[in-house]
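Section 5.1 Outputs to date
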Amino acid sequence: MIFSLIELPVSILLFYSNRQMEHNNKTSGGEFILLGFSDQPQLEVLLFVVVLISYLLTIMGNTTIILVSCLDSKLHTPMYFFLTNLSFLDLCLTTSIVPQLLWNLKGPNKTITLTGCAIQLYVSLSLGSTECVLLTIMAFDRYVAVCRPLNYTAVMHPSFCKVLAGIAWLSGVGNTLIQGTITLRLPRCGHHHLHHFLCEVPAMIKLACVDIHANEVQLFVATLVLLLLPMALILVSYGLILHSVIKINSIQAWRKALGTCGSHILVVSLFFGTSSAIYIQPKRSYGHSQGKFLTLFYTIITPTLNPLIYTLRNKDVKGALRRLLRKEQNY
């Protein structure tokens, strides 16, 4: 239902943004050139192999988590409802980036069409913003589970979980409609060489041939709201969890509480650690090799690691996999 509500406004904005892009890029031949890692051609073959393997593992791992969470009734809990949303997010995020990246890595053709660039910008920005909010919601879920166990089922009611997930998705879409549309409407005076491997807001605004101070302020505010604020809320949640766990005298209870939160802490560290290094670092370093490799990590490598983290460290998921395999064998 959420997607049907946003499909029309997104399509309208994409149509007008494309027309504006075509107007702003008359001299660019109707395409952008993603320079990516072309300054390091010796690495492109290795990167092609690494990205391809990572993408295949991402598809396999996240699809497995979605199927297991849906098919096993014991995983029909708020935690795995949000984990399913996270896996779907990771699948869509990597799919919006990897095919184009592989195409550019395999040969000298580094171009992307205006429409393709606009779609990639809207989709990747929306999903990345949604993931920031969703990881915060997952931290809140763990806080209620550990610190308010007797009220957990009452607080994390299925209808409330759906509302929280809807807020995450809509916040990502709202951020994209604002940032993406403003960025695509910037005049570029024929500049079409992007010093990156994807169409992303910081790289796109660098092509503008007008003063971009207002855009940088707007990007900073968005980063503050959708990156730094979620990080602060997650730290508060786990600070309260740690304070509650310290009071527990039982070693078994300690292990259960930390085991429940361990996987999520690891995922949060990987995603926010690398993305914050990109969006909070000085402007002059963005687009350099270090920035591109960090972007590669949180957009492609992290979605690959997430399923491994949750399955290898999570007894519930491993148990559900074994039950499904036994059912398949018996069948």
